[in-house]
């Protein structure tokens, strides 16, 4: 078989990268090519779609440097024992593809990960070289996210952070036991050590920037990680607890949850079915509660069932409210912000609007309804000037009333 063309390599390595979910492009420093200097921009509208906090869709070229790998992680389609077609880019090819796609207005940035070829250090050197070519030779100012390798020399990971907007190191699985069983070549302590080093480098860079105007930046969009859900026996309680420790211990910008997907020629130790995608969604909702709504990890765990898993039919915020009905109803005209954020159906924006509006008038139920997406979910948990839920909050069938209606889809519906 002859050498692969660039297009053939792209087809193989872009498909191999689809299992990594941690490719958001938010939080980076603003850079652009105004004034005729450089190529690319991290601003404006955006092949992989990521979303900024303000809702903008930003397109990223999401590829692997190579899908060759010397590791044999059971859950990975690119593992050493997997019978898949292999390919490999050179750093120059990665840079050329990125610039070519950017000039065609296909992308705004690059997400680069890799299997481990030859050694962790060699692979990390190749990834850093691709980023160096883009930044120094092409003067590319768009977004770059590098998936770093915890087994690599810390100095190489540091170099990656000097070129990338965001770096990430995957913890892979929620528990050390699961990692030992399914990824015998990886070490949880080594992964956490690498994440701790990146955290300290970010803090040092921010401190240097305050004191020296031209201090080099280091991963201005921070670091993130990813956990695979459903490949082992870890419960949602284990996963949420692990995520909370990662946020607190390493200052992560995001923890991504990726539902395990059965792969060809799968190892016998893996489950035969993937977990329901709604489970991944519920974990993201619980993550939001801890990051933006003031919930502690114990609060989210209180919303879980006896098996330690989040309910799939209702969101974790509603599950918590139904378990602690004595907290409700809350008076929208008097309750503090942190309590209003516990009301099912009220998001951060709605709560901010309510607090701003009640400074000028006493709110009625219909006025609250105008400040929210839907008042139906909110009504059992609040009081307003003209509304008291009376026995509604304590109804035995309240969960059934508020749970999303299940609908049977039609195969031949228009």
TrEMBL record:
Gene3D superfamilies: Aldolase class I (3.20.20.70). Residues 59-286 form the Elp3/MiaA/NifB-like radical SAM core domain. Keywords: Iron, Iron-sulfur, Metal-binding, S-adenosyl-L-methionine. GO terms for molecular function: catalytic activity; iron-sulfur cluster binding; metal ion binding. Its cofactor is [4Fe-4S] cluster. CDD domains: Radical_SAM (cd01335). InterPro entries: Aldolase_TIM, DNA_rSAM_put, Elp3/MiaA/NifB-like_rSAM, Endo/Exo/Phosphatase_dom_1, rSAM, rSAM_sf, RuvA_2-like. Pfam families: Fer4_12 (PF13353). This is Putative DNA modification/repair radical SAM protein. It comes from Pontixanthobacter aestiaquae.
């Amino acid at each position: 078989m002859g050498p692969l063309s660039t297009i053939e390599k792209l087809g193989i390595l872009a498909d191999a990268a689809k299992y990594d979910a941690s490719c958001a492009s938010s939080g980076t420093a603003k850079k652009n090519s105004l004034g005729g200097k450089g190529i690319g921009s991290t601003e404006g509208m955006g092949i992989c779609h990521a979303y900024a906090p303000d809702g903008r869709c930003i397109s990223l070229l999401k590829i692997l440097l190579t899908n060759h790998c010397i590791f044999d992680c059971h859950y990975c389609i690119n593992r050493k024992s997997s019978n898949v077609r292999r390919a490999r880019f050179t750093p120059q090819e990665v840079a050329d593809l990125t610039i070519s796609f950017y000039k065609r207005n296909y992308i705004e940035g690059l997400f680069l990960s890799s299997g481990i070829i030859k050694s962790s250090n060699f692979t990390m050197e190749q990834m850093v070289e691709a980023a160096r070519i883009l930044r120094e030779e092409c003067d590319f100012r768009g977004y770059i996210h590098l998936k770093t390798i915890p087994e690599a020399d810390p100095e190489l990971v540091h170099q990656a952070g000097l070129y990338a907007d965001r770096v990430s190191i995957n913890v892979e699985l929620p528990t050390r036991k699961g990692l030992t069983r399914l990824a015998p070549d990886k070490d949880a302590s080594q992964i956490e050590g690498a994440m701790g080093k990146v955290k300290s480098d970010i803090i040092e860079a921010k401190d240097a920037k305050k004191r020296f105007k031209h201090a080099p930046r280091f991963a201005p969009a921070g670091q993130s990680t990813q956990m695979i859900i459903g490949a082992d026996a870890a419960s949602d309680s284990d996963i949420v607890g692990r995520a909370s420790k990662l946020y607190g211990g390493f200052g992560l910008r995001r923890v991504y949850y990726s539902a395990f997907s059965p792969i060809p020629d799968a190892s016998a130790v893996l489950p035969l079915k993937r977990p329901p995608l709604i489970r991944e969604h519920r974990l993201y909702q619980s993550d939001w509660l801890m990051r933006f709504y003031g919930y502690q990890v114990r609060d989210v765990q209180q919303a879980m069932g006896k098996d330690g898993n989040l309910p799939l039919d209702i969101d974790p915020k509603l599950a918590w409210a139904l378990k602690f009905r004595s907290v409700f109803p809350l008076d929208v005209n008097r309750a503090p912000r942190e309590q209003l954020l516990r009301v099912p159906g009220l998001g951060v924006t709605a709560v901010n609007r309510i607090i701003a509006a009640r400074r000028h008038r006493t709110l009625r139920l219909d006025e609250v309804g105008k400040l929210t997406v839907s008042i139906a979910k909110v009504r059992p948990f609040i009081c307003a000037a003209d509304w008291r839920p009376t026995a509604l909050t304590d109804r035995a069938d309240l969960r059934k009333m508020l749970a999303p209606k299940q609908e049977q889809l039609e195969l031949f519906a228009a």
